Amino acid sequence: MLWLLLGINIIIITAVQGQLNFNNDLENNQKFQSVPTTIKTYENDTVLLPCSLDTPFRYVRWHRDDVPLVDSRHPEILPPDRVMLWPNGSLQVSYVQTEDTGDYYCEIMSATGIRSIQVHAIEVQYPASVLIEPNGVTEQSIGSVVEVACQAQGVPQPVITWRLNGNTLDRYSRTGNRQSHIFDIKSRSMAGQIECVATNGVGQPAVAGVYLQVLFIPEVSLPQTIVYTKVGARAHLECLVESAPMAAVKWFHHGLLITMGSQITTHETELQFNRSVDHYVSHIKHVLVIKKVRDADMGQYECRAYNKLGFKSASIELTGRPMPCIFKINPGTQSPTSHILVWQTESLLPIMEFKLKFRQIPSRNVTKQIRTNWTELTIPAQVTIGSIYITSYTLHGLQPASLFEVSVLARNSFGWSDNSKIVRFATGGEVELPNYSTESEMQYDATEEYSEQNEITQRSQILTASMTHNRAEALSNCGPSALIYSIVLIIKLFYVNFKNLY
Ligand SMILES: *[C@@H]1O[C@H](CO)[C@@H](O)[C@H](O)[C@H]1NC(C)=O
Ligand SMILES: *[C@@H]1O[C@H](CO)[C@@H](O)[C@H](O)[C@H]1NC(C)=O
Ligand SMILES: *[C@@H]1O[C@H](CO)[C@@H](O)[C@H](O)[C@H]1NC(C)=O
Ligand SMILES: *[C@@H]1O[C@H](CO)[C@@H](O)[C@H](O)[C@H]1NC(C)=O
Ligand SMILES: *[C@@H]1O[C@H](CO)[C@@H](O)[C@H](O)[C@H]1NC(C)=O
Ligand SMILES: *[C@@H]1O[C@H](CO)[C@@H](O)[C@H](O)[C@H]1NC(C)=O
């Protein structure tokens, strides 16, 4: 009834007298020709709201919610812009605007003096629009939690959906036309465009976005953890750093900050090419260049990358030692009691000798038993032109149908190489292969033997004494105390060129 009260004090104060009563609607409606309608329309359209009875009428007047619009009894009073009353009682609203949305009341008096009211509605539909908060770019560290809120407008009420890097997200909370999404920043991979899309079926969906930039402690990786060099050579130590924000890098040698100069310099190369995707993450290769390596330059280096969140570092060894040996697959058929081993290594300084370690390992039908100790042989190196060494060596007198594992190291004047990977082989005859498989088991073996160094050296002396060179073959019984399997080893050293071998 509020509209009525407001209406009274304007034009129709004498005419209405407050007698209108909605309770009469049922009775009234029977006399209406027009039917109550909600008109869904669009901006700039023209809308016609009918109001007519079966019988002629005395007057008609229209209200928009509480505001009087037109009255047929007072044509001299100008209606609001874009509003017009037709003689048949219809109300026309032209060029409708969003603010025209609302209820429109028609009050009509029949010739017989019965007053009736009919309600129509205009709903001006308009496309969705949406605002996001925060907007632009938001920087968040791993471990933080950020709430992003979207507020949509439009008629009808838009539906909001969320996307992260184009993937639809499900969980969100809603209050009215505001929705929020909590992002728990767990990893770098969450970085990207957060978008909310508001759709109401009118026009194009509206999209608002914010770029989520994930900040993290620098990540350091090394293409090589050991750099092989020699005195007088030029050495490059490389360190790859990914970070957001960008990291500063410092280099240390034996724990001391390196001062750059003519002998030692650094340079950087940017590796991140796809800036549009991950545009705040820097991915940079830092290189420490030692122009002419001196003895004092050898040893442990550290590349340490800092940003405001923290730092990480990685160690690189600069050494003159030979590289670890690599066993070559030997395609030749093997006899039941011997095995040809071929390995390759590289050393800038001449290699003086190799240390070959081998031992028998249990096959499947042998119940799990403790591994035997390594047997070790010292093998002199051949003279080679260049830095690549390929060596062939035959183990003789092995137990047939058995499994063995071998590892080899090389030594130059700088020191011993790291152990090669452990390689397993079987001597000829039926042998059931056990389910050895995991690399980790092998790795474990490789480290374990460092503690056995002393024991190995002793054994090595015994065996070295029994070796013969220069294509000669010698039979040597090393005694039961030295050899675990009480086998007789016949050691034959080939001075064979690797190429001739195949
Ligand atoms: C309505 O008319 C105005 C003025 O001519 C125009 O700017 C606007 O874009 C129109 N709206 C639509 C939905 O066509
Ligand atoms: C009322 O008059 C207008 C203008 O002549 C016309 O367009 C409309 O159809 C009429 N409405 C009714 C319900 O007769
Ligand atoms: C860069 O990003 C675009 C878009 O994500 C992708 O299609 C393209 O393969 C990326 N390029 C590289 C070099 O990673
Ligand atoms: C293991 O199995 C092979 C063939 O199946 C057999 O010849 C050999 O004697 C077995 N070894 C042991 C220790 O049982
Ligand atoms: C292996 O070496 C250790 C330490 O020298 C010794 O105690 C052990 O008996 C050896 N095992 C075998 C099977 O020879
Ligand atoms: C070895 O592998 C075979 C086949 O995968 C399996 O049946 C057997 O149980 C395994 N043996 C052991 C000791 O794990």
UniProtKB/TrEMBL annotation:
Keyword Zinc: no
Highest taxon of the lineage: Eukaryota
GO biological process: one example: glial cell apoptotic process
The protein, known as: Opioid-binding protein/cell adhesion molecule
InterPro entries according to UniProt: FN3_dom, FN3_sf, Ig-like_dom, Ig-like_dom_sf, Ig-like_fold, Ig_I-set, Ig_sub, Ig_sub2
Keywords: Disulfide bond, Glycoprotein, Immunoglobulin domain, Repeat, Signal
Organism: Drosophila willistoni
Signal peptide segment: 1-18
UniProt domain Ig-like: residue ranges: 30-118, 127-208, 218-319
Gene it is expressed from: Dwil\GK20814
Residue ranges annotated for the Fibronectin type-III domain, each copy included: 323-430
